[in-house]
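QA checklist item 7 of 12: single-chain prediction sanity check.
[x] sequence parsed
[x] length recorded as 486
[x] structure emitted
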Amino acid sequence: MRPVVKFLGDELAENIIAEARSILCKLGMEIHNAGIVSTLADHGAKVDTGKNRVCLTDAIIDQALKTAPESFKLYDVLGRQTHNLSGYNVYFTPGSAAINVLDNDTNKIRTPTTADYVKYAKLVGRLDNIASQSTALIPGDVHQNISDSYRLYLSLMFGTKPVVTGTFTIDAFNIMRDLQLAVRGTKEELKAKPLTIFSCCPTAPLKWSDVTSQNVVDCARHFIPVEYISMPLAGFVAPVTLVGTLVQHTAETLSGVVISQLTNPGTPVLYGGSPAIFDVRYETTPMGAVETMMVDCAYNEIGKRLGLPTQAYISLSDAKQLDAQAGLESSMGATLAALAGINNISGPGMLDFESCISLEKLVLDNEICAMTLRLVRGIEPKEDFPALPRFEELLQDQHLLISKHTRRYLKEEHYFPGPAIDRANRSRWQEEGALSLRTRAHREVERLVAAYEPSSLPDDVKRELTTLMEKEADRWGMDGLPHANR
């Protein structure tokens, strides 16, 4: 039996959905994109052009939910299926778009570079329990107007796993689409085997900017999957109660589903988000707060009730170092997310309110992911009945270390973590250097990066990717790309 955690009863979930629909139909969304407003008006939405406010109808919402697919698959750079985003299947993805990296040598944060990104891409490819890449950090050694496309380029050049990405500008979408087409070859093949998921973020409360709403439309036109990242902050730009925050999150996310499905029915979507409570004491948005995790798991239940696959930013920490708080918050979030069945769990490697990534933490989080994946497999009998023969063998031999039963099921039943996790007795730990978690994790980073093997993406495709990226860099006045990406 797969263990599952739930926070909402049926009646409460239905009430939340009903209230969100009422808000969309009576208060509406503020949408700063004339083309989208026109499309919604053509489908019967009521538009107040003076306030850029659009009130939907139940018929529009129902039609969008009818055409939105209940699942979709992802494929890696080489065209191999890696994800089936459906039901209670769970997959882990590193956090995205960090503006800082925690430097292990100095234990201080700094601006990331291309070299940091390449090292990250090489590392994440070796982490077996993290199913996809993300465009996890923003290199500071390229023009800001190519930072979105450049991160995707580096992921495709140095990694193999599918990529969770996104863009902060309308202009960057075309080059990011073309990079994917270079890998897949044709738009039909890209549609058949999606390579990326784009994060698209409404603005709390109840607003879509021109840029983010256009991203939804552009992705829909090319059947590129989208995850909606609604970010209500409980007690600040959302009601202080968790139920009120869920109502707002539902309304904002449903509006995104409507935009994508009216643009191109059947476009794959993830019912996602990154909500948080607002800690009034420090004026911060703690992703490691238990209430934040509860909201994430609860909106996942709503997404499943609406027949959509789900996503959440949850398995991450607000700590500033790789310390006990980082482990506490990340492991609790990952465990709850996995038990709730969130399909795409985003956050490993992240610190400091989603602003910093640590490669050492990513190694630790890979172990957390493995433990939670083992957890959700549950407990099932493996030739355990009848039990009498096993205990007769135990009493006869006084151990079961070399029993056929032990050898058959040991690795299936027991997860054995890597070197970052200490399970030695004290004397052996001391003999091996009495290493701290940070040191063990750093050694594992260096070992895995050293074991990197380039992807088997054909050389002509890599040359095309580089040509596309060099042209984009030239367009923004750069003489070339940083040498660290070679």
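[x] summary fact logged: The radius of gyration is 23 Å.
[ ] second reviewer sign-off
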